[in-house]
Small RNA 2'-O-methyltransferase (Ornithinibacter aureus), 473 residues
Amino acid sequence: MYLTISTTHRPATDLGYLLHKHPDRVQQFTQSFGVATVFYPQATDERCTAALLLEIDPVRLARGRARNLPDFSLGQYVNDRSYAASSLFAVTLAEVFSTARIGRCASHQDLADSPIPLQIRIPVLPCRGGPAIAHRIFEPLGWQVVADPIALDEAFPQWGPSRYVDLTLTGTVRLADALTQLHVLLPVLDESKHYWQGPDEVDKLLRSGGDWLAGHPEAELITRRYLARTGYTRVALERLTELGDDSRTSDAVEQDAAPLTSEPLTTEPQTTARTPLNRQRHDAVLAELLDLGVSSVIDLGCGPGAFLERLVRTPSFTKVAGSDVSTGSLHQAARRLHLDTMTERQADRVELFQGALTYEDPRYAGFDAAVLMEVIEHVDPSRLPALESVVFGTASPGAVLVTTPNREYNVHYDDLTGMRHPDHRFEWDRDEFATWCARVAATHGYAVVIRGIGDPEAATGHPTQLGVFTRDA
């Protein structure tokens, strides 16, 4: 199995810092099923390429199988695992580049936090469903995809293509995001795993899926193929829908395909089930913005653009902007809003840009209102003061609307241990949120009102907390 990661960022050899693997060295890593080697076929200031080679020991792999799994006779020794990227390769990728995958680089942290030009190639990748599946899965994440089918036998072209493709991904993506996406999606394309799946697979999927899986138009397909077991799939989809920061509602796929107009959304799922929490958040924040009478709104940490779509469809908002640290999410938002087919007049209302909320950016300023919907809990507590300074101090909109989970309510979610999302750095109870709101308001000259979103419980309150900050005249 073989993969290359290339960049033309200058100096390109900075890739070695991000991967924590020096270009001048060949490094080997022993796995339970073989040996992984990292080396650099090319390392110049103009272009740098890192390669990961995994050599499988079929005997060691067969001996490592669980006793209760069938051996399929010679199939455990004679198979494609030595040549085709699979879940074995995904596990190796995650282990060998573990620090890079979490986005940590002490000497080049700003670079690790930034999208850079990348090209990733996997020459032999199992892809059940053919090249079309590769396009459906990777393109919404901001990649340009080339998936060339590999002939079953070049000597017999009439036999047609095999189930393998030669995959090349090109895009400007944060390296940590690229590695995490590959970790999840390689076994999704192969639709086969080399290990027994337990209940912890749901947490692993949500942790690795980060902020991109819930908003992916093929989230259900990815979840089903990753987990492959109906019980776990149901649990994962429920958590994506109810607890995800920007999860899709049951009619989200249909809305994505609909042409964008200036009319408010009216389509509702034809079901008697209660409204998903993320939809209740969107409804509540939109109602507050309308009550405030604002005309320009920026959605900070907009993700794949579900709430942006609501804003753009509301005619009273004459200027709408969305900002996110993830370029992949911004690409998804652009597709959701159909920016490429908007009229010039419509496009003048809308702006999308990449930015980090802990760094000052003049593009954040000049709006009547800013929205931080399920954002602050993703920020390390030590960096939260920087966000407060950027949003409430430098940008200083007339109103700021902040939503965040109410930790007390978590006891009502079955099978939830810990926090609601693997990427949450903290979750506040009602007193903690009220204390934070009061301090921020006093520091930056705002008045604040705290409300609840969702169906409340007597002892624990609402599932979501909402702080409405307005500039103190």
